[in-house]
């Protein structure tokens, strides 16, 4: 088995120097004791741990360093972040927004996003951050399901993504617009407020109300194969896992300059792109710009980034950009690189050991787990291509699968795979603080995610004889494109809304850079011709409504395969598309 062995200085400097010892001694109770808690025993609040706690002891340290698209750099100290987030919490109060109500953000990565996110948590409201590249349909669907009562967004995003669907959002009482107050709708227009005016009028002191660790803090939408997006509910207690896993898996501490390239619209961008670096008192780098290889190398070098958390797609793009590109930059400050979200190719790990001076540490988790569960560690050898081993405090198992591809239920229980190297569903023993507490309004779906004390992840993995986990695929049909999870049903529903489309099926098609790309197959209603104009029209139609999750490829196919009960067989479509064996066809409708 090929391993990458770390040089000794790295082993000695790591914050978790001995994995086996840490597993033996770790306890969640001790991890909880690392949190300061609200004063006077008033509970546990994520924003207090991330901001206020440090404002008292090291207020002048830089909490956020924001790199503007225009090249400007803005430093926000912990003391300043405390005042700004307090103003936001007070502003919610001025609007009559009460605890437990849901505040959505639809914002690019600007200071406003971080202030709104943490201010919302301070106020005891529930934060639901949306990805700003979503089109109007995904935005509306999530706001509707989550009954968002406040939306913080830019005037431009409002016009493009929200105004077309606003009528279908009766719960939305307040839209707070960022930017120049003069450019947006007037204060006083129904439901609109200028965020700048509100913050100006608000007091910059705020006492976080008592917060029960089990109070809901975050609502993150994720996708399954069927049905509407699932709103995964997370509580304030999750901060214990955000903090502890950042030490163990990201080797993060107070003296680090940390860059997480994930957008807060996805769970990584919140747990590790907002919360964990701040609970550690580190400096969190925020880059407003999009991916650009040269720019990213410059950021790593000029900002002296010490810990970098990114995604396989970005690393593959850097690799393609050329091996010598990294050598033109001084990356000597870079101590630890980690990635998540999709399979990380072994050659990228080897490339980065050379080019970046440190191998990439792959790790695994998902929206529902709230924090990193399986990882390669700073002081441990790496097996390129493996996701690593469970974090201290986490027990993982590989469960035998039934005919539906999911864990086999035997007399209400489950069975672990015995032979190393055999596929099975990845399961995690329930009991860590950031495990989701529910799918919003979908209790049955939530209950179905558990069996016999295990949370069932929906991922298929293998464990080797030494306990290292290897990703094999998904047990369902969800698509991972550039690290972002896309539910085929959501895309199919939008395509079906076009008058030409009789039926639609969407699959993930392997792509060397993005992992998978979204590919759609449609059958047409009578009277429509499958010509180039219609092809472009359908892609454009989906793009305008879905934004970044729209299909990149589309084929008109009059013979989509169905089961005998009438469901489209995406799996078979995918096998055909890739020229793979078609598997068991006994349930396929052939007429
Ligand atoms: P999300 O809930 O959007 O964060 O997506 C979680 C899913 O991403 C997991 O269930 C996996 O299918 C996939 N994933 C996350 N990390 C990895 C990894 N290191 N290797 C392979 N797949 C991963």
Automatic annotation (TrEMBL):
Keywords: Acetylation, ATP-binding, Ligase, Nucleotide-binding
Assigned EC number: 6.2.1.1
UniProt entry tagged with the keyword Plastid: no
Superkingdom, natural source: Bacteria
Domain AMP-binding enzyme C-terminal as annotated: residue spans: 490-567
Domain AMP-dependent synthetase/ligase: 52-440
Single Gene Ontology MF annotation: acetate-CoA ligase activity
Statement: the UniProt record of this protein carries the keyword Nucleotide-binding: yes
Pfam families per UniProt: AMP-binding (PF00501), AMP-binding_C (PF13193)
TM regions (residue ranges): none
Name of this protein: acetate--CoA ligase
Gene name per UniProt: acsA
